[in-house]
Specification:
Elements lengths: L8 H17 L3 H11 L4 H8 L3 H8 L7 H16 L4 H10 L6 E11 L1 H8 L2 E2 L9 E8 H7 L15 E6 L5 H9 L6 E5 L6 H9 L4 E4 L4 H9 L8 H5 L4
Parallel strand pairs: 3-4, 4-5, 5-6
Antiparallel strand pairs: 1-3, 2-6
Helix pairs in contact: 1-2, 1-5, 1-6, 3-4, 9-10
């Protein structure tokens, strides 16, 4: 569970996409509009006010008199999230947990607009490559992990939850001492990231380095940058940077 009222960007985005997807793919979009409005505890008048449309417009969509297009769906989801953000993300948090979107220990996770090179990762993180340069898989996304919270809450067979849409990603571990535990977890995991970054340390356990070399995973240390700056730099490269939560909302 979260210890405060904040939600990671990736959680808000995942819920937003689920709501929009339910509406778009439903054979009865009007029913989905009403269902999600009621889940968030809003009346038609309430959501119309937030969307800055008349009550009759919302009513027409929910009665199936109008077919919701992309713009309306986007406004609708934005209104739900905007309302919930003012209440501490109470409903969004519950929905995320029920649907399995929230994973304890993930600080941020998203996919890049297009694959990026290892050299660019080094620039974005002010990182230092400590293993020999290895021909690596494409880097299509990222996951930033609080190692302590992840170790405390995630079972060994749940490591795959850190991978997002693809394992072709850079995985950043923060709150670590020498980096052995994350690399041991990767060693036994059925899927492995393209690149690993150990944040906030300069000296790395020799076993961690050996595992990275054996698994053909470039290993980087990033001691000269905050984890918040890494997340910001990565997010600027993602499709999610144009998402509902980033474009319209502040994560209160």
């Amino acid at each position: 569970m979260l210890l405060n009222n904040r939600l990671p960007e990736y959680v808000i985005e995942s819920v937003a996409k689920r709501i929009a997807g339910d509406i778009v793919w439903s054979s009865s979009p009007s029913i989905e509009l009403r269902r999600w409005r009621e889940i968030y505890g809003l009346s038609q008048v309430d959501i119309a006010r937030i969307m800055k449309v008349s009550y009759s417009v919302v009513s027409d969509y929910e009665r199936g008199k109008r077919e919701p297009g992309r713009r309306f769906i986007r406004q609708f989801v934005k209104a739900l999230l905007e309302y919930d953000s003012s209440r501490g993300w109470v409903i969004t948090r519950k929905v995320a947990i029920l649907l399995g979107f929230y994973v304890e220990g993930i600080i941020d996770m998203a996919e890049f607009l297009s694959p990026i090179r290892l050299e660019e990762i080094l620039k974005l993180t002010k990182g230092i490559l400590i293993t020999p340069f290895i021909e690596h898989r494409p880097i299509k996304g990222y996951t930033i992990v609080d190692s302590i919270r992840t170790i405390e809450s995630l079972a060994a067979n749940e490591f795959v939850k850190l991978m997002g849409a693809t394992s072709d990603r850079v995985m950043v571990f923060t709150r670590i001492t020498r980096g052995r535990s994350p690399l041991v977890a990767i060693r036994v995991a059925p899927v492995k990231p393209s690149v690993v970054i150990l944040h906030g340390i300069k000296k790395v356990d020799i076993i961690a380095i050996r595992i990275a070399i054996k698994e053909y995973i470039p290993l980087i240390v990033a001691p000269y940058i905050s984890i918040e700056e890494i997340a910001k730099n990565f997010r600027n490269y993602t499709l999610s940077a144009k998402s509902l939560s980033t474009t319209y909302l502040s994560n209160k």
